[in-house]
Amino acid sequence: MFIGRERELSTLRNKYESGVFEFVGVYGRRRVGKTALLTEFTKDLPNGWCTAVEADAQANLVNLSKAVYSLQNPNAPLESAPVFADVSGALEAAFAATKKTRGVLVIDEFPYMAQADPSFSSTLQAAIDRHHAHSQLFLILCGSSLSFMKHQLFGKESPLYGRRTGQIELKPFDYWQARAFFPDMDATDSAALYAMTGGIPLYLRQFSPTASVEENISQVFLNPSSILYEEPANLLKQEVRDAAKYHKVMSVIAAGSSRHNEIATGSGVGSSALDYYLKELVELGLVSREEPVTGRGGRRAVWKIDDLLFRFWFRFIRPRQPLIDRGLAEGAASIIKDELPDYMGTVFEHMCRDWLWREYGEGRLDVDIVDIGRWWGNDSRKREEAEIDLVAVGNSGTSLIGECKWRNEPVGADVVERLDSRAWLVGADQQIPRYVFSREGFDSSCRSAAKDMGNVRLISFEEMKG
User: Fold this and answer.
1) 313-322 pLDDT tens trace
2) In a domain? residue 352
3) In terms of domains, do 35 and 76 share one?
4) How many other CB atoms are found less than 10 A from the CB of residue 85?
5) Closest listed residue to residue 247, CA positions, set 258, 261, 237
């Protein structure tokens, strides 16, 4: 069953209805659901589908020929498809087949096509320039290599620059979208499953909606036969050389090191080499460099793992793999479940940030927002380090501040008072609203303090889940 992606499907359908030549790039990390999206979009439409393979130009020409043959002969068996002499001939035929009728040509795993045949992009550009004004072809290039796809679509030195008519960067589901996979599950448990997978559809489908969190961890992460047992390791092997070095870097970040020198020391990777590894991981969408949202450009930058599957796996699974491989996984799920609330703290901040963006997009926030992030630094009044979980910035400065607490007990007045005392650190005067998010709600002292201040909004997880 296909779930979600209503906005992306609407974008593709609107493009299809235009009736003129369209060229859309679809890209996103592996397993995010690009092929599933395009399969759903094209299921009732005349189409040709080419899945490129790695390092084999002839095999790709065969696959492209079959895709074009499908456009020419929608109901004919592909076994009878002739192979074109070259890519140029195949593309010419695709444009000719859609001169009077609409048809969709999908080239999936496009980076493999372009790498196997370096002239492909130039050949495609020439065909587009010759025929786009008199064709109804809907061309879709799809790929998982974010840096390569962005270079091909947006890079001024790319032959395809300026030819696209649209693009879709497919993102993982947020928590609310991911909940559709477990509509009858307790919201806290579904949040835990989201926190382990980062909203990747294929990964969410590995969990049982009727099993407990501990049982799901055992079945999905601690079972050597499960696809997620070594998924991050396998994905890294597909994307980088010398994956072991990247493993070291990500293991150190997952264990709590966040500053450049800490990561270099902990991983045993030299500073200059570390810069290269981090750059590659950023391009893969796995890690990012974060700075205080109102003080960017300073020396307080930290590194974090953005991909939640990688964050969870490197923190909890990889360190235990030697035991698991020897059949000694008993008790590991229980230990992980006990440590999960601490892990969920930063994930909950991420969820609260997404919630604010959703509320803002729906017009339910009376503030201006152009960015949301964290702030950390020195509190000179108290002579201590301080942190604020959420700081929203608008065109005129800070527009909202907030704290996020994933605790097993209601939040007390101390959280509200501490947030208020730190507001000045990010230029938030008394008119700036304070938001406090809590998994288990708020006690009477917190509600009383919020009422007295007047500018505090208390948001329970019950209210957030909708």
Assistant:
1) 999 999 988 8
2) no
3) yes
4) 10
5) 237
